[in-house]
Structures are given as structure tokens and as C-alpha cells.
Amino acid sequence: MNKTVKGYAIGVMSALIAVGGVAYATSGQRNIDVTYDNYKVYIDNTLADLTDANGTTVEPFVYNGTTYLPVRGVAQAMGAQVTYDGASRSVYIWDKMVPGETMMMDVCPPYEGGSVYSSSEGRTFEMDGKKRSNGITFGWGGNALFNLDGRYNSLSFDIGHTDSLGYEKTVTFIVDGKTVKTVTLDPEQLAEHITIPLNYGLQLKIVTENESIGLADMIVE
Question: Where are the alpha helices (DSSP H) in 56-198?
Fold first, then answer.
């Protein structure tokens, strides 16, 4: 299952609207009267503890005969992942969390730029004199774009020189237009392990104005 709920459709509302009894429509806002009466949600016959992103308990309510549930609380209670894109007012619900040790090149290769190396395809490159895989390399001034789909919280990898040692190199990581990490490689530096936040963003852009840079064992969680 991979569903996008535009705005607050299909009778499921974000817990945010439960505060103060204010409902947000496509545009503007209006005051409504809602009913709280200790409504409960059971998942597989087990009472669910519905909470918001901060862990605060949130309650269902009834409005005009329809029961509205906090989307994040219900989804998380069912083991699903929820992200929200404020720009498009879209709620993303994923049927399961991304498992640990998930190789990025297997689930989210770049849709533009870079040379991809995946162990499942038997492709390797050299970094620090060792064969590496499950990553990407860049030529001069290479950029790469990844469609994250709002599914990932973090990315970890080894980054280093693949050739042409002797000068400093810089790589910048940008998520949804905001720089989250800049890595500088010294001229003769060995590969280092890095973790960057993705914060369930929609797009990752990797930018470098240098050449012969590799990222290996790229793991998303």
C-alpha cells in the first residue's frame, strides 16, 4: 500500500484539527461543533493508544454523524509510517516502516545523475584501494537527484576519493531545497562514515563541483 491523502479527505483528519474544534478546508476556515465522548479505536481487538508526533494522546470525535480519527495515531498504531508535506497539504501513509539495513540503490536509485553501483548487479568501484558497492560515484561537477517519496528518516554511507588525490573536495547534501550536510574531504583522507538526516523529505540532491568522489554502502532507514 502506498497512498496519498490530499488535504484531509476520506473522512480521516489529522490530529491537528482536533484542537480547538477548528476544521481546515481547501481554503479558509470555519468553526464547528464536535462531540468528544471517550470514543475508542480497537485494532485486531486490541485497544489502540492514539498519539500525535509528540507522543501526546489524541481523541477521535464526531461531527455531523461522522467519526473522525487522528490519522497519525491510527496509522502508527497499525504499524504504518506517516509523513506530511505542508507545501502540497498531503498526508502520506505507508503500510510499513522501512526496515534497517535497506540499501538505497535497491529501493531508491537516483533518477538523474551519478554512476550507480549495486551489489545485486555485481557492480563495484574502488575507494581507498578497496572494491566497494551499493553506492554512487561522481565525475567532474556531478550532481544526483533522488525521489525519496517521504519514506526515509536518515541516510548513512562511506564517502571518499575514488581517484585523483591531491586536492580538497566538497560534497553538499540538500533535502527539499535545504542543505542538511556538507562534507569536505582532505587531499589524502581515507573514506569516512557519515549519517545525514532525510527527515522523511521528498527529494535528495547531492551536489559536488569536484570529481572522483564515491559514496558506498548507502543505507536508508
Answer: 71-77, 104-107
- Residue listed under C-alpha cell 468528544: 36
**Whole domain around residue 196: which residue ranges?**
102-220
Let me know whether 133 and 204 are in one domain. Answer: yes
Q: What is the CATH number of the domain that holds 117?
A: 2.60.120.1060
pTM higher than the cut 0.70:
no
Angstrom distance (rounded) from CA 134 to CA 151: 19
Which residues contact residue 10 at a Cβ distance below 8 angstroms, ignoring those fewer than 6 apart? none
Write a three-state SS string for 96-128. CCCCCCEEHHHHCCCCECCEEECHHHCCCEEEC
Which pLDDT belongs to residue 14? Answer: 37
* 90 and 106 housed in the same domain: no
Residues in CB range of 140: below 8 A, 6 or more apart? 210, 211
Q: How far apart are CA 150 and CA 2, in angstroms?
A: 11
pLDDT for 122 beyond 70: yes
pLDDT tens figures, 127-170: 988 999 999 999 877 899 999 988 899 999 999 999 876 789 99
CA distance 192 to 50: 41
Same-domain status, 151 and 183: yes
Cell of 63: 461531527
Q: Single out the residue of 221, 220, 205, 202 nearest to residue 138, CA to CA.
A: 205
Which of the listed residues 59, 94, 129 is the one where a domain comes to its end? 94
